[in-house]
Amino acid sequence: MKNQPPTTQLEVKVILNRIQRFAGFVYASIRLRGSGPSLRIEVKMEPHRGIRGKCATCLEACPGYDVLAERRWLFVPLWGIVVHFFYPPRRVECPAHGVRVEHIPWSQGKRRVTTAMMGFLARWARRLSWRETARTFQTSWESVYHSVDWFVAWGLAHRQLEAVHSLGIDEIHWGKGKGTDRFLTVIYQIDRHCRRLLWVGRRRTQATLRQGLAALGPTVLAGLRFIASDMWQPYLTVIAAQVGHALHVLDRFHITMHLNQAVDQVRRGERTRLGDTPSGARLKKMRWTLLRRGSRVRGRARIKLHSLLSSQLATARAWMLKNAFEHFWTYKSFVWGGAFLDYWTTRALRSRLEPMKRVARMLRSHEALILNWFKAKGEISTGPVEGFNNKIRVVTRRSYGFRTYKAMELALYHNLGRLPEPETSHCFL
User: Fold this and answer.
1) What is the pLDDT of residues 371-407, one digit of tens each?
2) What pTM, to 2 d.p., does this model score?
3) What is the Cα–Cα distance from 75 to 42, expressed in whole angstroms?
4) Interatomic CA distance for residues 359 and 259, integer angstroms
């Protein structure tokens, strides 16, 4: 380092060699430049004497051709100080590929960020927003983006899919606006031993889902035992056509969501009709209470709920119907579960509550898939599907909203894919 004794430089070289060595290259000289926030460590790289450069295409040692101008690469910070590598790349004359820039072991292609730093940035990008990661480590947002891109590409190329037996399929809205372009089709692995994002595609269409299932490969599809999804007919059609051998279970969360929406529709209609009358006042500020299970209502909300249930309001009847349906999930027998479903839908169709009647008709039209819940015998849980959807919303919120689909896709694989990591990323743990 500048104005430092040789022993200090030697100690830093020892640290760098312990962290990461590069075959055929040495840390030649080290200097400390700048001051304050602009303080940085400059490391000069040199090839070993007598070692030829390797062709970047075939990695074969080749005769030298010429030497290019000195280039700079960003390395992992030491003690919070920015570290740069400096080296003038050689060009070699490869018998097979002609004149090529030599293989640089600490970088990928033309990136001015070292591979080690790319792994470092990618790891931090799971904890911080990409913008904050770039600001913290004094680099650009683009460098973080390319680091995550490389990290994800490596992980997708090396992940194992042999033990996938259960899939969860859903769609999630992202960004602003409406239309299919603002939806993502997501496929999760929801096995008890492994839960992760397997595939994400743009738009909510049959073609998108077909593409996603095809991307998993015929071996994975042949080994599937269970699939969970909502009741959207295009998804049901594709699943029946491509993976009809797997037991298809309708997602419990989406059934509950339809019931909650029906109760809320009844409440809003009745609140508008009754206005400021004493009966209408009972419905005021009751939305979130009515969306909960009866067993989860506590305190003053429970008192207000009991007061509402003692009335003859349509909202009270709708809520009791919704709450009664929770008993369906407690049955163990396919026969008794089917009997309860028939009883409940009959009761709902006679309720004179149109939103509840629509739900009842929907459940009857999908009765076979709903009753597959009992055929699964508890071997599949659909809860992780909604859990992953919530995590997607967290990723989006933490990132202040991605403007491009590609960035969103990378962030989801990076955070939820449980991808394997390159070995270089473990050098700094």
Assistant:
1) 998 888 777 777 788 788 888 888 877 665 567 888 8
2) 0.82
3) 10
4) 7
